[in-house]
């Protein structure tokens, strides 16, 4: 089951009384595909949303609706409820104070406590949300630009920043960011899905942190290995030209230890000397060896 359908199923379970049924159906009707004095058409690719529309309509208007199936442009099944009976359309328009040719909603029709379930109806009509494993994105494909503006304001009232765009001639209201999506899902009654999203986010954050640490460790290891190889190269140059015996005892000892192992850290080399020294002390001796090697490469003299 897709994450969008998990959200739909959860919010359908919250529509449990008369006021909530009224508010949810209001959102579904207002944001349905076609709303006019001659025809009302609710269309959805989600069977969950389509079944909820039929159930709410039956309970609010005491009428059964027939569903017809069609195929969308993407090849998916489209569930359609067409209402063409003039008397029934008038009943819908009267109950929800619709005006033919206009799409706007009034908060007077739904109490403050029902705004969430009204927005849930909007989501059932035209909303979708991406799988949080892939992307944080929730959107509403609204049928009218004026409705988009109203929806952006409504979401703004709960602290969610929504934006609009055009896609294939249709206005889309979209929300980015996990926290904004969490707030929206909680507002429309999908608390369990909110928790699921939060768990996914925590897992992704931990995984990303582990990857960063692993990458950092890998980069540090690469630097250590590269430095050790450069030190061995310098030491072999010195050995093949002027000989390690020409070095002071302290330089010769670290040089011999490095030739024995490229995997030893500076601290380990320092601890392995006849007279142990600190990491910085070992690093200082390798810098001296590097200067001697550079002088040899440049054909110059050097000091022991």
What is this entry, summarized?
With 304 residues, the chain is of the alpha+beta class. It has helices at 3-12, 18-30, 47-61, 86-96, 115-126, 145-157, 178-187, 191-241, 249-260, 266-272, 279-297; strands at residues 34-35, 40-44, 67-71, 77-83, 127-129, 137-142, 163-167, 170-176.
Q: How does this model look, in words?
A:
By secondary structure, the chain is an alpha+beta fold. 57% of the residues lie in helices and 13% in strands. A four-stranded antiparallel beta sheet has the order 1-2-4-3. A four-stranded antiparallel beta sheet has the order 5-6-8-7. A hairpin with a 4-residue loop joins strand 1 (34-35) and strand 2. Helix 7 (178-187) packs antiparallel against helix 8 and helix 8 crosses helix 11 (279-297). The longest helix has 51 residues, at 191-241. The chain is rod-shaped. The mean pLDDT is 89.
């Amino acid at each position: 089951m897709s994450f969008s359908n998990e959200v739909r199923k959860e919010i359908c379970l919250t529509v449990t009384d008369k006021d909530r049924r009224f508010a949810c159906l209001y959102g579904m009707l207002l944001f349905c595909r076609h709303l006019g004095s001659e025809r009302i058409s609710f269309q959805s690719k989600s069977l969950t949303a389509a079944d909820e529309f039929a159930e709410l309509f039956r309970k609010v208007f005491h009428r059964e609706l027939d569903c017809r199936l069609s195929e969308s442009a993407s090849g998916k099944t489209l569930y359609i409820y067409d209402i063409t009976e003039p008397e029934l359309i008038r009943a819908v328009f009267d109950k929800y104070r619709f005006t033919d040719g206009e799409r706007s909603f009034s908060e007077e029709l739904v109490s403050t406590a029902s705004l969430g379930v009204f927005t849930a109806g909007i989501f059932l009509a035209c909303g979708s949300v991406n799988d949080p494993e892939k992307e944080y994105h929730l959107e509403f494909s609204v049928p009218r630009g004026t409705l988009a503006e109203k929806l952006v304001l409504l979401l703004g009232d709960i602290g969610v920043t929504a934006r609009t765009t055009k896609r294939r001639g249709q206005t889309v209201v979209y929300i980015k960011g996990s926290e904004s999506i969490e707030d929206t899902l909680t507002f429309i009654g999908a608390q369990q899905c909110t928790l699921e999203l939060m768990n996914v986010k925590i897992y992704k954050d931990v995984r990303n942190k582990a990857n960063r640490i692993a990458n950092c460790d890998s980069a540090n290891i690469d630097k250590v290995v590269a430095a050790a190889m450069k030190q061995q190269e310098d030491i072999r140059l010195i050995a093949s030209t002027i000989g390690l015996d020409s070095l002071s005892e302290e330089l010769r000892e670290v040089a011999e230890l490095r030739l024995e192992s490229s995997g030893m850290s500076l601290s380990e080399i320092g601890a392995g000397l006849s007279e142990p020294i600190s990491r910085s002390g070992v690093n200082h001796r390798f810098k001296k060896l590097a200067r001697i090697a550079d002088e040899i490469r440049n054909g110059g003299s050097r000091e022991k």
